[in-house]
Amino acid sequence: MLRTAVVIGGGTMGADIALTLARVGCPTHLVDPDASRRATLPGYFAKGMVELGCPDKAALITLHAALEQAPWKEAGIAIEAIPERLEPKQHLFAELSRLARPDAWLTSNSSAFPISHIAAGLPGRERMFGLHYFMPAQWVPLVEVVCGADSDPAMAQSLAAFMRFTGKRPVVVKKDLPGFLANRLQHALAREAFALVEAGVASPEDVDAAVRFSFGFRFIAVGPILQRDHAGLDVHCAAAATMYPDLADDKVPSKVLRDHVAAGHLGIKAGRGFYDWPPEKIVAEKARYDRLLRAALELIKDELHEVRS
Fold it and tell me: How many CB atoms lie within 10 A of CB 107?
């Protein structure tokens, strides 16, 4: 299922998506008008392919300054990975509708905007999908194939099959809800975590430890629904009846989160968030994070292979 791919946007997500495509042999064309960014990408791709164990595959990625330079007659998929602003995405999809061949998938990596909003009013909406990767895209297996109101379900399944070919574990999201699937689950957990910190129940460090070393530790083996089958649905149902009335149900981000944002404490990129991030700690943290993700991927590689075959 080898396809030529065009990725639009050479930021972190676009560059890493290009890596995931080229590593399995797909000729990949990355479009970014920023000359300074394009100048950094060959070195990034060379290093990334060495880390992925396929240094020769970096040559499969070609850079372009403009959409018209990409080989649209050959391209079977376009993946938009530009900044999260709706109007530029809508404008880009209008251009993609004009340039791409009729059987190509037109997809958006947006984590914020439903594909129905991006594709509104355009011809060929049946071939337009959300295609939501997770950072870092070359290591995190999941990708969400998100259907809009007009997306063709059969094309969604063929897009999911292509994602499996590229080494990803796709999930098909049948309704175009805000946050899709994984981010809705992630934010539900985060809402309760921030509420517990704000209420003084536990420190950020202990909240993180409670997730990582208890039920989060199990998530490498089971998801939340399969885990309930392991534990017994009667046990879960009884516990839910006790706890659900007391869980956070805020309709806005928690005050403790908003206060950090207002103060400019944005996390690693700002040098301070819930934790302090001096430069040397940032380097160590990124290395630790990357090492553990790779180790986790090694643990589940056989299951990912079973999904692809």
Answer: 27
Q: Is 155 helix (H, G, I), strand (E, B) or coil?
A: helix
The hierarchical CATH code for the domain 182-277 is 1.10.1040.10
Can you tell me which residue has the tokens 């999908």?
Answer: 129
Q: pLDDT tens digit string along 207-261?
A: 999 999 999 999 999 999 999 999 999 999 999 999 999 999 999 999 999 999 9
**Amino acid identity, residue 64?**
H
Whether the predicted pLDDT of 1 surpasses 80? no
In the chain, domain spans: 4-173, 182-277
Task: Give the Cα separation of 5 and 74 in Å (integer).
Answer: 8
CB–CB of 30/7 below 8 Å? Answer: yes
Distance from C-alpha of 57 to C-alpha of 242, rounded to nearest angstrom: 54
> Which CATH code is given to the segment(s) 4-173?
3.40.50.720
- Helix (H), strand (E) at residue 173: strand 169-173
The predicted-structure confidence for 18-34, as pLDDT tens digits, reads as follows 999 999 999 999 999 99
Burial of 304 (0-12, 13-18, 19+ CB in 10 A): middle
Check: CB of residue 181 under 8 Å from CB of residue 144. Answer: yes
